């Protein structure tokens, strides 16, 4: 089905940044999204992409993108009006006004910024977990008087790595009651230039501003339901889930690791073997729909006692899956495990691209 789709022109806001570069890498070989317009700050606007971008990926800048001229992030800047989708990797301090301006101009925006994640009419969508939240965009359009434009956000990068295994466990065993999670987050999660080398080398920084709260409330929205009339969300509808998060920054370049303990509502809790099987068996709608960026396996279960590791496992399935390992009994709650997500791919750009592919497949993008 994908092979026969006609080309859809796309724009990238924040194209020069950490997430923006992953968008370029993913979209430059995409089967039907075609990079058409690039936006960044006024410092970069008017200049060639290769001239102003501090490219940090191991691949080279795709040739046609290198020569593109960066525009200001304004919907009437050259190129954006023709785009069927606009991906945003903008900093949160500027994303707020820019993203709604693009939406008001009838553009479909997929954002990585935190600004509208709590908005009751904006889907907070992790493509491997809750594509069923997408219909709320019709309510968003009707409230705002829009025909084509809408806004969808993806989750915080560490939330994304957590909710995929939690969704798999809830699918197999019913609601989870309690989650304790401690993250070990990569430096690239703070963008470029990010944390200073003198702060992070030989060190662990035990605080990332606002991150713990994001994990705690975002998880409840993502694992919640859509109201029956698709006008909003019911946060973790079946039962209140208590989540306690501790977030730390560690000297890893890409890949957020988390140590997780969960307690199920059901008693007795599932065994370690049952949990492992449920993680192995997990399949999701992105895979059933067959969208191009869906990983063959949403969760890779590791049996080796020293895996997953960021350096060895973040590239699995092109960074589009979550790795889980060390599944074992928890003497305090029920089960504990380690999970790993590529924070810039599934944690950011890949999620936006997959969300847009799902929207195309379900007829939400003309
Ligand atoms: N890094 C991650 O792992 C990750 C994961 C999930 C979500 N996110 C979110 O994704 C967003 C981008 O993060 P990042 O890490 O890619 O940040 P980044 O590396 O700092 O890049 C920021 C981008 O925003 C542009 N920008 C800055 N000020 C602007 C302005 N006034 N007008 C227009 N564009 C402006 C920059 O353009 P110039 O080059 O011209 O300054 C650059 O392209 C953030 O909201 C972040 O929270 C990041």
From TrEMBL:
Example of a GO biological process term: methionine biosynthetic process
SUPFAM superfamilies recorded: Glyceraldehyde-3-phosphate dehydrogenase-like, C-terminal domain (SSF55347), NAD(P)-binding Rossmann-fold domains (SSF51735)
Highest taxon, organism lineage: Eukaryota
CDD domains named in the record: ASADH_C_arch_fung_like (cd18130), ScASADH_like_N (cd02315)
Catalytic activity from the UniProt record: L-aspartate 4-semialdehyde + phosphate + NADP(+) = 4-phospho-L-aspartate + NADPH + H(+)
A Pfam entry, by short name: Semialdhyde_dh
The keyword NADP appears for this protein: yes
Gene3D superfamilies in the cross-refs: Dihydrodipicolinate Reductase, domain 2 (3.30.360.10), NAD(P)-binding Rossmann-like Domain (3.40.50.720)
Signal peptide, first to last residue: none
Entry annotation: catalytic residues: 157, 256
Alphabetical keyword list: Amino-acid biosynthesis, Methionine biosynthesis, NADP, Oxidoreductase, Threonine biosynthesis
EC number of this enzyme: 1.2.1.11
Pathway(s) it belongs to: Amino-acid biosynthesis; L-threonine biosynthesis; L-threonine from L-aspartate: step 2/5; Amino-acid biosynthesis; L-methionine biosynthesis via de novo pathway; L-homoserine from L-aspartate: step 2/3
GO molecular function annotations of the record: aspartate-semialdehyde dehydrogenase activity; NAD binding; NADP binding; protein dimerization activity
Record bears the keyword Hydrolase: no
Domain Semialdehyde dehydrogenase NAD-binding: 9-137
Function: Catalyzes the NADPH-dependent formation of L-aspartate 4-semialdehyde (L-ASA) by the reductive dephosphorylation of 4-phospho-L-aspartate. Mediates the second step in the biosynthesis of amino acids that derive from aspartate (the aspartate family of amino acids), including methioinine and threonine, the latter of which is a precursor to isoleucine.
Similarity comment text for this entry: Belongs to the aspartate-semialdehyde dehydrogenase family.
Protein name according to UniProt: Aspartate-semialdehyde dehydrogenase
């Amino acid at each position: 089905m994908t092979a026969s789709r006609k080309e859809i022109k796309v724009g990238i806001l924040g194209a020069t940044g950490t997430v923006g570069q992953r968008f370029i890498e993913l979209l430059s070989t995409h089967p039907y999204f075609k990079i058409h317009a690039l936006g960044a700050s006024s410092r970069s606007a008017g200049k060639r992409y290769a001239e102003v971008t501090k490219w940090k990926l191991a691949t080279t800048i795709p040739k046609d993108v290198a020569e593109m001229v960066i525009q200001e992030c304004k919907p009437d800047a050259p190129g954006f009006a023709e785009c069927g989708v606009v991906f945003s990797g903008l900093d949160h301090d500027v994303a707020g006004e820019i993203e709604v301006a693009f939406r008001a101009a009838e553009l479909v925006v997929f954002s990585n910024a935190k600004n509208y994640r709590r908005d009751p009419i904006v889907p907070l969508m992790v493509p491997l977990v809750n594509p069923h939240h997408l219909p709320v965009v019709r309510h968003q359009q009707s409230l705002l008087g829009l025909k084509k434009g809408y806004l969808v956000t993806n989750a915080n990068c560490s939330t994304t790595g957590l909710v995929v295994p939690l969704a798999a466990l809830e699918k197999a065993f019913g609601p989870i009651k309690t989650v304790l999670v401690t993250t070990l987050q990569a430096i690239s999660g703070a963008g470029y230039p990010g944390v200073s080398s003198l702060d992070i080398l030989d060190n662990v920084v035990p605080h990332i501003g606002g991150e713990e709260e994001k994990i705690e409330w975002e998880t409840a929205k993502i694992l919640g339901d859509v109201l029956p009339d698709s006008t909003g969300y019911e946060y973790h509808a079946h039962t209140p889930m208590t989540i306690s998060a501790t977030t730390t920054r560690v000297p890893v370049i890409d890949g957020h690791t988390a140590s997780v303990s969960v307690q199920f509502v059901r008693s007795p809790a599932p065994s370690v073997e049952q949990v492992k099987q449920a993680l192995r068996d997990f399949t999701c709608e992105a895979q059933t729909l067959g969208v191009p960026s869906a990983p063959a396996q949403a969760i890779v279960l590791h049996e080796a006692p020293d895996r997953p590791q960021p350096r060895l496992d973040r590239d699995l399935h092109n960074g589009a899956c979550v790795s889980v390992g060390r599944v074992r009994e928890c003497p305090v709650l029920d089960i504990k495990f380690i999970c790993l997500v590529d924070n810039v791919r599934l944690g950011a750009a890949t999620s936006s691209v997959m969300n847009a592919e799902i929207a195309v497949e379900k007829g939400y993008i003309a």
